[in-house]
Amino acid sequence: MQFVPTILCGGVGSRLWPISRQHHPKPFIRLSDGQSLLQKAMLRGAKLDGAIEVLTVSNRELLFKLEDEYREVNHAQIDTSFILEPFGKNTAAAIACAALHIADVHGPATILLILPADHLISNQAAFEQATKQAIHLANDNRLVTFGIKPDCPQTAYGYIEASKNNVLRFIEKPSREKAQAYFESGKFLWNSGMFCFKASTMITALREHCPDILSATQRCIEQSPLVKGRSFSQLALDAASFDLIRDESIDFAVMEKASNVAVVPCDIGWSDIGSWDAFSELLDGDENGNRIDGHAITHHSANCYIKSDSRIVGAVGLNDLIIVDTPDALLVADKNRSQDVKHIFSALKLQNHDVHKNHTTVHRPWGTYTILQESDNFKIKRIEVKPGASLSLQMHHHRSEHWIVVSGMARVVNGSEEIFVRVNESTYIPAGHQHRLENPGLLNLVMIEVQSGQYLGEDDIVRFSDVYGRA
User: Fold this and answer.
1) Would you state the pLDDT for residue 309?
2) Cβ pair 406, 446 in contact under 8 A
3) Backbone phi and psi for residue 219, each to the nearest 5 degrees, phi listed first
4) From CA 28, how far away is CA 448, in angstroms rounded?
5) How many C-beta atoms surround the C-beta of residue 351 within 10 A?
6) Do 223 and 146 reside in the same domain of the chain?
7) Counting beta carbons within 10 angstroms of the beta carbon of residue 61, is it exposed (0 to 12), middle (13 to 18) or buried (19 or more)?
């Protein structure tokens, strides 16, 4: 039976700050094997027999990061398609868009397998068996959810009371006492957030239980441009009509109300990696229970998780701490309070501090830039441009820029001039000059940019033309 793995790549993962940020959310976090959670989710669905394409629902600002991530691992060259949201609207809107889109493209009987982009599943064989059972139930016009057999009384997850494949009720995140009782009874499963259903079955359920969401989503899709290529498609949702869709989870909107809901109990090595404490469990501990990811030296310390990709962290006399070090932010937290990291993220967002949005390395459609150093009147960046890529034709009011090519070759438009700048050569862009940077070569262009001026904000930019539609 053919079906479409559908990856939901939304949310920020605020409890995994400072690695997870608004423009580099949790699904893009790399694990010790070098793959991101998103890549693992994509491969998990693409490897299943009968998968005809991988559909991803995500924020439009993440499109180029998504494409880069998939390009790196999509060796089987399965078709990829994207539904691009202008902003988040919860899972009911995302799933409604996916169901309507797939019904239109592949037919209403096509099955969707909904996979969150930020979960980890360690047992692929068990997952494949659970998926086969879910597809069988979905063919019988059931709305199927995957229930995880609990191994502890967890309070961070919702629960499902079940009898075989029948859902008796959904339960919100319980208290510690109720979670213990649910665990001991053997009748309850964790709600994984994974689903399986025919497009037509979900559309019927939406029409019955939340017709306003369905009708608003239909109107939005009708006003949204669809771009198709040989092996991909992009549906960019219209912002004005998308804003009119009610913000609701699919659990509240449909699953808790519908009578045709089924569950597949499974033991697939599932984790939503919802906190640094959970993340640390992916690593083996040393003789003192310390889990180290990167560079750290411990002395008389126990049960700590330390992550540092660049600097060496020295830990002396510490117990039960989480330490996550990045070039521009440091987290130190009580291991038993790891869920509360989200409050730090919220405070940074309220202050509009950039460390809740970006890392020092920022991804753009054309490549990346890394801030090496900055002060009041200067900023130094390392810029890397992909082969054949081009930045917009632009101008800055308040800053001048000096460009030094480290490797590759640059084609530079500077006012009325067009020049080529090679390794160990440089050029100067005065404030107020229209300019464009291109990489005409076959290798990455790497250059150092030194900005100088009274204002160096990223919003000091006027775009005149842009191949990525940002002008």
Assistant:
1) 85
2) yes
3) -65, -40
4) 26
5) 10
6) yes
7) middle
Q: Which amino acid is at 19?
A: I
| Beta strands 378-385 and 445-453, pairing class | antiparallel
Determine the Cα–Cα distance for residues 419 and 370; give it in Å rounded to an integer.
25
In this prediction, residue 471 carries a pLDDT of 65
**Boundary-marking domain end, from 349, 370, 404:** 349
Token readout for 285 is 């501990």
pLDDT tens digits along 311-357? 999 999 999 999 999 999 999 999 999 999 999 999 999 999 989 98
The model's pTM: 0.88
Instruction: List, in sequence order, every residue forming a beta bridge with 419; answer none if it has no partner.
Output: 412
Q: Which residues, given as ranges, of the chain have pLDDT below 50?
A: none
Q: Work out the mean pLDDT of the chain and round it to a whole number.
A: 94
H/E stretch holding 276 reads: helix 276-280
CA atoms of 267 and 270, how far apart (whole Å)? 7
Residue 192 sits in the same domain as residue 117: yes
| Kind plus residue range of the DSSP H or E element containing 116 | strand 111-116
Give the CATH number for residue 142.
3.90.550.10
Answer yes or no: is 177 within a domain. Answer: yes
Q: pLDDT tens-digit profile of 13-33?
A: 899 999 999 989 999 999 988
- For residues 252 and 280, membership in a common domain is answered with no
Q: CA distances (Å), 300 to each of 287, 314, 463, in order?
A: 11, 11, 56
With vertex at residue 244, the alpha carbon angle to CA 240 and CA 248, rounded to the nearest 5 degrees, is: 135
Looking at the DSSP assignment, which residues form a beta bridge with residue 411? 420, 438
CA 86, 91, 96: angle at the middle one, nearest 5?
A: 85
How far apart are alpha carbons 245 and 92 in whole angstroms? Answer: 9
Residues in CB range of 34: below 8 A, 6 or more apart: none
Q: Are residues 176 and 322 in the same domain?
A: no
The pLDDT, as a whole number, for residue 401 is 97
